[in-house]
Amino acid sequence: MYRRVITFSRNIFLPLTTVCTNACSYCGFRTPVGEGCVMPPAEARRTIEEGVKAGCTEALFTFGERPGEVPGFSDHLAAPGYDNILDYCYDLCDYAISAGILPHTNAGVLTYGELDRLREVNASMGLMLETTAEVPAHRNSPGKDPAVRIAMMEDAGKLRIPFTTGLLIGIGETAADREESLQVIAGLHRRYGHIQEVILQNFCPKEGTEMGGAVPATTADLAETIRCAREILPPDIAIQIPPNLADAAALIRCGVDDLGGVSPLTIDYVNPEHPWPQIEELKGLVGDARLCERLCIYPAFIRKGWYPERLAGLIRRLQKQIEERSL
């Protein structure tokens, strides 16, 4: 009897800095420049090592967009010996590979050259499109210009980087805006074939932010968006929802394929008030479907060889590790 398969990745979350040049009305992750605004190298390396011991296969590196443009940030980055956050990220990705875990970097908007360099030490990369609409929530966020984000996603396609993107639901966009955003993603994938998953993430109001009192999207809104995505997106793109933010048990039947990165070790630093469900809980969420672990680079892209040659042995070893765990 055929059973649907729902996948997830076992990961660790490393927020290298919370400083960001954008000032989105809904964001609780961004902080001012100050003491502790850069994750110390020793803490990052320790987290990587503990993640490997815990059986994690993905090191998710993320940080505020273009923090170097924020006055005073460079002084804090100089303490661990760097003058560029991307150099710091590159070195930690390199360390993660040597430790035995695959890097996936979501660094905000990057140039073609920056993407090209970081792909040397990443199995996959990502950037949330969020929306193609011009919404008030992004009025103080130059990096959230839809054209800028779409251009980067196109560059990732040209570079054949296995890529994650997605929509943030409930930040002032309409249902028609969501449909347009999905059409844009589908068009990019048809041109370049590089989108491996689309996250449909519901905005969660954060106390103390400008949108702290906003009404979030409902489960019905998410269900409709998932069904719309399944109609619009090519079938080889996985649809992902975050199981710590959404009612996954109710939404999976709408066309969800994946539950994203779930960590046994680190919190969701973007939504710290929402703890990850652990693996046994995920099994309950998927109902009659079969829960399967995956790497941060999907099998289709492994078969196509869309990864740096230096990762070949690690990908094989971690894939075998996952297969042995599932027996």
Kindly describe this structure.
This protein is an alpha/beta fold. The chain has a single domain, classed as Alpha-Beta Barrel (TIM Barrel). The protein has helices at residues 41-53, 73-78, 85-99, 112-118, 146-158, 175-192, 219-232, 248-251, 279-285, 299-304, 312-326; strands at residues 5-15, 58-62, 102-106, 124-126, 163-169, 195-202, 238-240, 258-262, 290-293. Strands 1, 2, 3, 4, 5, 6, 7, 8 and 9 form a nine-stranded parallel β-sheet that branches. Strand 1, helix 1 and strand 2 (58-62) form a beta-alpha-beta unit. Helix 1 (41-53) runs parallel beside helix 3 and helix 5 (146-158) runs parallel beside helix 6 (175-192). The radius of gyration is 19 Å and the shape is globular. The model has no long low-confidence stretch (mean pLDDT 96).
Architecture blueprint of SSEs:
Blueprint: E1 5-15, H1 41-53, E2 58-62, H2 73-78, H3 85-99, E3 102-106, H4 112-118, E4 124-126, H5 146-158, E5 163-169, H6 175-192, E6 195-202, H7 219-232, E7 238-240, H8 248-251, E8 258-262, H9 279-285, E9 290-293, H10 299-304, H11 312-326
Parallel strand pairs: 1-2, 1-8, 1-9, 2-3, 3-4, 4-5, 5-6, 6-7
Average pLDDT rating: 96
**From the 3D coordinates, which CATH architecture would you assign?**
Alpha-Beta Barrel
Tell me the number of helical segments per DSSP (H or I, 4 or more residues long). 11
What is the terminal-to-terminal distance?
A: 19 Å
- Measured on Cα atoms, how large is the radius of gyration? 19 Å
What's the SSE pattern? Answer: EHEHHEHEHEHEHEHEHEHH
**Total strand segments:** 9
Shape: globular
Helix proportion: 25-40%
Major sheet characteristics: 9 strands, parallel
Question: How many structural domains are formed by the residues?
Answer: 1
CATH class descriptor name: Alpha Beta
Structural class: alpha/beta
Instruction: Give me the CATH fold name.
Output: TIM Barrel
* CATH homologous superfamily designation: Aldolase class I
